[in-house]
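Progress narrative, Year 2. Work on HTH-type transcriptional regulator TtuA from Xaviernesmea rhizosphaerae advanced from sequence curation to structure prediction during this period.
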Amino acid sequence: MAKPSLSIALRYLHYFLTAAEHGSFRKAGAALGVQESSISRRIRDLEDHLGASLFQRYNGGVRLTFAGQRFQRRAEEMVRHVMDSAEDVAAIGRAESGRIKVGILPSLAAGFLAELFRAYNQHHGGVHIDFVEGETAGHAAAIAKLGLDAAFVAGSRPWPECEVTPLWSEQLFVARPDLHRLAGQCVLDWPLLANEGVLIRQGAADPAAGDALTLRLIEAGHGIGLQQQGVGRDTLLPLVAMGRGLALVSEATGSIPFPGIVYRPIAGETLTFSALWSAKNDNPAMRRLLAIARRVAQSIEVKRLR
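Result:
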């Protein structure tokens, strides 16, 4: 007998288990909505394939042989295992479970992302999320290699082998020491920052790094001096508090109080933030995350326009 396909094998097992339950091919056929002859023929095929009789036939119905009793236990385990496996896979497809790896910038731990992941957790709390903190260029490289499922970054520039989905915008702020010559200014503009020293990370001025905040500073001109520091983004704020210079930050960062620092908005200056992802990535949890991100972005925009 030719080896049956998985779907046929499962049907044979289903016929066998139903016949064993009802003790009759006729009753099994009625329960399954198929002809008695189909039940009898498929079970005979199964017996031929196994090389053993599973049922004793008699006028009143059928009863399991010793081999049939042993096979019944295995068949029930096989069907249960297949059904459980199918449910596990379906749950992943519905993003009820699974795993997702998401890149974020240190300054994006509040604001939009906080709202996004609260919403995601409400709908897909069974999905485990691995957060990876890093800079935009590194996230983009990881997305292209499928090392990350998605990343949320400042800016909307294109990256090789990445899809870029602009989602939300934030006001730009200047972080300054609480005692500073600009202390009396509630709102700043670029000319007011002329000849000021603004702290940036080492290498952030390189366009290849994709640091959208630093690139905005460079585009602004006005004699703003960039002071590169060999520290992480989060360490820039303590340096500002120490009076070593100013820093350009996003609205999300500016919403978090920091001792010794005052945040002031830059008039008319906003920055777009985007999701990076790969069209080659078929992780359902990632697709659901992007869908929720778009909904959250639309909701925020509607509230802003009211």
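The chain has two domains: 6-93, 98-305. Strands lie at 55-58, 61-64, 98-104, 127-133, 150-154, 163-177, 197-201, 225-229, 247-250, 261-277.
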